[in-house]
Amino acid sequence: MGEVTMMKQSSARLSRAEIEAIGAYAAKAVWPAGFTLYQRGAVADGLFVVLRGRIVLRSRVKAGRGFVPALATAGETFGAEGLAPGGHYATDARADDESETYHLSGARYRAFVREQPQHALVLIGQVMAEHASLLDKLRELATLSVEQRLVATLMRMAQDASFVGDDGRITLDAPQYRLLCEMVGATRESVSLVLSRLIGDGLAERRGTTFVVAPASELAQRIADTWRSDTAVPWAVEKENGRASV
Length: 246
Description:
Blueprint: H1 16-23, E1 27-31, E2 36-38, E3 46-52, E4 54-62, E5 65-73, E6 77-82, E7 92-95, E8 99-104, H2 106-115, H3 117-143, H4 146-157, E9 170-172, H5 174-184, H6 188-200, E10 204-207, E11 210-213, H7 216-226, E12 238-240, E13 243-245
C-alpha cells in the first residue's frame, strides 16, 4: 500500500463579529435535543448558522442505519442547498443536543449580500470551506480502510469540546458510539474490531458501554508512525457490506 496522505478537516469558523453581522438579517431559533429541523427532499431556503450546540446531518441508508457526512457546530453553517435555485435538502438535519441557530432565508441572504458585501464574502468562504471538507470526506470513503477512516473521524470529533474530557481524551457513550459508526460509514461490528485494535495498542479503553480514546495528538502520532510507508502496517482485510475493505 502506498503512502496514505490525510488532508486536515477545515477548521474554518465564522468569527463572533461575522455572526453578529449575519444576526441583523437572520431569524434566531433554539432547538431541543433530538429535534429534526428538516428532512431530505424538503424544499430548501437560505442557510443556517450554528450559534451553539451540534447539528447532525444524516442520510438514511436503511432501517436502523444511517450515514453522517458532517456535523455542524458553533461558527459553522449547514443547509446551504437553500441557496441554489429550486434547492432541496440533501440530508436530514437533527439537533444532537440543545442547539441555537440563525436562519438566513434566501431573500434575507440576498439583502445581506447587497448591503454587507464584506461580511457576505466571508460567509461564502465559510460555506466553500465546508464544501471542501465534504469532498475530502468523499475521498476518504473511496480510498481509506475502515481503520483509517475511524482514526480520521476521531480526530475530527476531537475538535468539538463536547466529545473531549479535561485530559484531552475522547469519550464516547452509547449514542456517541453510534454517531461515530455513522460518521465512519461502517457497520458497528467493523468499528468494534478497529476499537479493539486501538485498545490492544493502548490507545483506547472500554468502561462498560463507554469508550475512552487517546487525545488527538496521540492519534496523530499513530498516523505518522504507521501510515507513512507501504510496509508499516499489513492492514487486515475486513468484510464490509458484502465487499472486502482493506
